[in-house]
Design a protein that fits this description.
With 246 residues, this protein is an alpha+beta fold. The protein has 5 helices and 13 strands.
Length: 246
């Protein structure tokens, strides 16, 4: 399997643990980066993830680059990566795809009705920290749908579904950039049986025919209330590194 496929969350948790073994010093140097890449390739191979692929976009190097690109101090990057994966696990996400390019741009919110009765049976939601245009409500048969079009500037897209009056979540995450966990929705938000609110983000006038761009607002994940925060430790030395230890 490759990193852009729907890889089980349990495998990604093992990747997150392996990343804690990498060396993130308080300064960047090419030698340490390539040593980390060699280690990461070895860890991924042990997890049966393809490390030699014709795809030059999705590979161990692009994953490592995404970890280095996380906007926190260098010694905290691997801990932040761990938090991103384990937060998704606590939210009920079962699979993750790493898609650094060619990110999906169109997603839907759906309510599936019971046959013969106009009564909600299942709700499918899409969460993102990006912005988009919103198509008007569309109804066909027993499906009521709202479409989010031309998604931009997103770190992630979460696709969740649940049967109403149930707390069993089915979820998939599409990740472009690994960022801090506090931009994810909360578990309460995902379990809610309503869609997230939408606000307009455009400043100033629009041209004729332009659609105002919007973004979702929702209660966000609080890592201070998480299970994984208890495993955060600080490695003392010539430089300090935050990392997670099971």
């Amino acid at each position: 399997m490759t990193l852009d496929e729907k890889i089980p969350i349990e495998v990604w948790k093992e990747i997150a643990k392996s990343v804690q073994l990498l060396d993130f010093k308080h300064y960047y140097d090419h030698k340490t980066y390539f040593e980390n890449l060699i280690k990461l390739r070895k860890y991924l191979s042990k997890l049966d993830i393809c490390i030699d692929t014709a795809d030059t976009v999705v590979n161990p190097s692009s994953l490592l680059q995404a970890i280095y690109a996380i906007k926190v101090s260098l010694p905290n990057k691997k801990a932040t990566f761990y938090e991103s994966i384990y937060a998704l696990d606590e939210l009920g996400i079962q699979t993750i795809s790493f898609v650094p390019e060619h990110f999906p741009q169109n997603m839907n919110h759906k309510i599936i009705l019971q046959k013969e009765r106009d009564f909600p049976q299942k709700i499918e939601k899409c969460y993102t920290d990006g912005n988009f245009t919103l198509r008007n409500h569309f109804s066909s048969g027993y499906i009521q749908e709202y479409s989010m079009l031309d998604i931009r500037d997103a770190n992630y897209i979460l696709q969740t579904s649940k049967v109403l009056s149930s707390e069993n979540i089915k979820g998939h995450a599409i990740i472009q950039k690994f960022s801090t966990s506090n931009i994810l929705p909360s578990k309460k938000e995902i379990l809610s049986e309503t869609f997230p609110d939408v606000i307009a983000i455009n400043d100033g006038p629009l041209k004729w025919g332009d659609e105002p761009r919007k973004k979702e607002t929702f209660e966000t994940f609080n890592k201070e209330d998480s299970e994984f925060i208890k495993r955060l430790v600080l490695k003392q030395g010539s430089y300090n590194q935050n990392y997670y230890q099971d």
